[in-house]
Amino acid sequence: MRFDGKRVIVTGGASGFGRAISEGFAERGARVMVTDIDAEGAATVAKGLEGAESFRLDVTEEAPHVELAQLMVDTWGGIDIVAANAGFAHRMGSTSDIPTEEFDLMWAVNTRSVYFAAKHFTPYMPPGSTIVSTASIGGKRPRPGLTPYNTSKAATIMLTRGLAEEFAPDIRINCVAPVASETRFFERATGLDTMTDEMRAGVVEGIPMGRMSDPVDVANAVMYLASDEAGFLTGVCLDVDGGRSIS
């Protein structure tokens, strides 16, 4: 897969899946705009990639998406690929104990951000362009303790399918559904800096491939869906779950 000269936006690009996605596209010839609410982190990632730039993007706000779209036009003349990867998780627990503000935040970060990307970036995306968002296998096979998060990811999957039909055939829109990975997701969900061996074993037990996902696994799936090799795929949610959803 090559992306020579392609103009790519990655949201949530400062760490985890987003960092791996940014690095993967850059290594394959793309010009990457690394965006994140963590401006310093996004700038650090961009500095390590040839031809990359960075932009502070709070995906819960609409105005910065308009500004970013114009920046892409001014800098590179348009947009070819959007990896709408930004995501957020609430602390694990009973739904009745989760503050309403956190429930609303799940929708703003995990779902509405994909709507903003489609609304404000597609006018500058030529035919053949693509959007790939990051959902979660929890959006298909939820587990207790993360119901608002899983619900927002399920909505992201349906939003992907609806947008795919709406923008076809000019723009393909797909998503990936990763299984758990040791990224900031677990820090936010558990409040721990690292997973305990017991927690890790409990998660891996339900994954036939015997391990959690690695950011590179997710990046590879995103790049495949954005590539010419996937040119007939739209409305697809690709499970990157090591088989967790089999049973």
Please give the structural blueprint.
Elements: E1 7-10, H1 16-27, E2 31-36, H2 39-47, E3 53-56, H3 63-76, E4 81-84, H4 100-121, E5 129-134, H5 147-167, E6 171-178, H6 184-190, H7 197-204, H8 215-226, E7 237-240
Parallel strand pairs: 1-2, 1-4, 2-3, 4-5, 5-6, 6-7
Helix pairs in contact: 1-8, 4-5
Task: Tell me what the structure shows.
With 247 residues, the protein is of the alpha/beta class. It has a single domain, classed as Rossmann fold (3-Layer(aba) Sandwich). Helices cover 43% and strands 15% of the residues. The protein contains 8 helices and 7 strands, in the order βαβαβαβαβαβαααβ. Strands 3-2-1-4-5-6-7 form a 7-stranded parallel beta sheet, with helices on both faces. Strand 5, helix 5 and strand 6 form a beta-alpha-beta unit. The mean pLDDT is 94.
